[in-house]
Structure formats: C-alpha cells, structure tokens
Request: fold
Amino acid sequence: MSTDGQIFREAWIAGVSKHYPGEPKAGYVAPWEETPEWERECAAAVFGQVRDFISVSGGNTSKLSREQKGRFVATCWIAQIHKHIENPKPGYVADWVDLPSWQQETDADIFEAIERARS
Reply:
C-alpha cells in the first residue's frame, strides 16, 4: 500500500508524463525510492494539507475549479520548499501565474488524485 507521500509522488509523475512538453528531466519522474528525503517529506506534508482541506470543506472541494485546486497544491508546496531549503531557486517558489502550464495542470491533477484517494 502506498503512503500519502507516495500517492502524491505518483500523481506528480503521472501529471508530468501527461503534461510536460517533450522529455522531462530525470528527477521529475524519478520513482519514490530515488526521491530525496526532503522532497518525500514535502510530498507527505502537502498530501496531508490537501486531505485536511478536503475534510474541513465537508467534501465540497469537487466544486472548485481545476485552477483553484492547482493553486492550493502550489501554495502548500512553496511553503514546504521554504521549510526545507534556506535560499531556494526562484523557480522553486514561483507564484501560480509564473508556473509553466504543464506544472499548473500537474498540480491540479495531484489535488484530484488526493480527492480520489480519500473516497
């Protein structure tokens, strides 16, 4: 059985594979076992934040747009990056509007994967 972080990572890899233009960087699609520990911690934390958000909304997150879902994942991820990396590269903490469309779509896919995992 997959852990919360693994579910997040699997959704990320699936989203990158679907939305990334061309060949993604190897690190983008590295399996869970090859993912750095800090990134595993981030994945598990963001999964938990999304799970809790779904719960406190009474399950009504299905009414959110894909953009709203993706923005939530992106914002939670940025907070985790700041927690784990002292001086992150600007691209690691870019605001939603500055993310490439493949990443926006992948973040929305992650939220929806967590919704499915909860049902």
